C-alpha cells in the first residue's frame, strides 16, 4: 500500500475553489476503527453548506464528505480486507475527515457490509440517499401496506428513491409532485402511480376526502409545508425531511391554523443507527433486479471536486433528479 493519498481539503469557508486537492498521509486506524479505500462517494447539500461556512460546529481544515463506499483496506476482525462496505453520518466529514479522499478511517460501528456486484458508479450514490428515503418512510412516517403516500418534491433524488422503495414494498399507492409536466414520465417510471403539477396548492387539486393521503413526505420544506399538511387525511402524518425550497423557517407560524385537526407533523434526520438499520444489501438486490432505479446525474473524479461543487450549486435537486458523486478508481 502507498503511504500517501489524494484528498480534497478545505482550510476556510468559501466558494467551490476553497476545496484544495493535496497529498496527505494515509490515516492509520485505531483498534476501534476501520480503514476504507474509497471507491466512490455521493455529494450532499450539507457539504455545500459546510463549505460555505454555514456549519459553525465544523472545524477547519477538514476533508468533507458525510458518506463513502469502498473496500476494507486493512484487516479487522469484523471486516476482512477487501469487504465491500459503506459508511455515513456520525460526524464523518464534519468532526473527522470524510469521504472526499482516497482513504478514510471511520469507527467500526459506523460501517455496513454490502453484498453486491453493482458498479461503483451506482453504489457510490446510494448510502445517504437510501438511508434518508428508507428512514423517512418507515421510521418517521411508519408507512404500511394499504396506505396512500404523497411525495412532495417528487423529482428530487430522495423523492424518486422513496417512491421506488414504496412501490417495491407492495400495496402502497404513491403519488408525487413536480413543477414541470415534462417530468411526469420519469416519475411514473420511478414508481409513482400519479403525478400532480405543483402550483403551490396541491390540496386544492384533491377533490374528494378519500383522495387525501395517509402519509406525506415533504421534501420542499417550509415553503410548501402548510399546503402539504392539508393533503393529509384525518389521522394522517406528514414528515418534513427536505429543504430544497431553501427557506428554513415558517413565517408567522400559527399551529392551530396551519396544522389540520388530528393530522400529525414530524421530521426526520437520520444518523448512524438509522444508517445501520437501512437494508442496503436488500436495496441493492432491487437495483440489480431493475425494480429500483438509482438517479445518478453526473459522475466526477476526485480531481474535479471543484467543478462537482459548482454543478451541485447550479443544478439544485428541486429542478433535477441528479445525484452527483465522485469516484477514485
Structural features, described:
The protein is of the alpha/beta class and 329 residues long. It contains ten helices and 16 strands. Strands 3, 5, 6, 7, 8, 15 and 16 form a seven-stranded mixed beta sheet that branches. A hairpin with an 8-residue loop joins strand 1 and strand 2. Helix 3 (127-140) packs across helix 4. It starts with a strand and ends with a strand. The model is unreliable at 316-325 (pLDDT under 50).
User: How far apart are the first and last residues' alpha carbons, in Å?
Assistant: 15 Å
Sheet of most strands: 7 strands, mixed
Which runs of at least 5 residues are low in confidence (pLDDT < 50)?
A: 316-325
Instruction: Tell me what portion of residues adopts beta-strand conformation.
Output: 25-35%
Into which percent range does the helicity of residues fall?
25-40%
The tally of helices reads: 10
Rg result: 20 Å
Indicate the mean pLDDT: 92
Q: What assembly state would you assign to the polypeptide chains in this entry?
A: single chain
- Kindly state the number of beta strands: 16
In short:
This protein has 329 residues and is of the alpha/beta class.
Throw out a few tags for this protein.
25% helix, 10 helices, alpha/beta, 26% strand, 329 residues, globular, 16 strands, seven-stranded mixed beta sheet, six-stranded parallel beta sheet
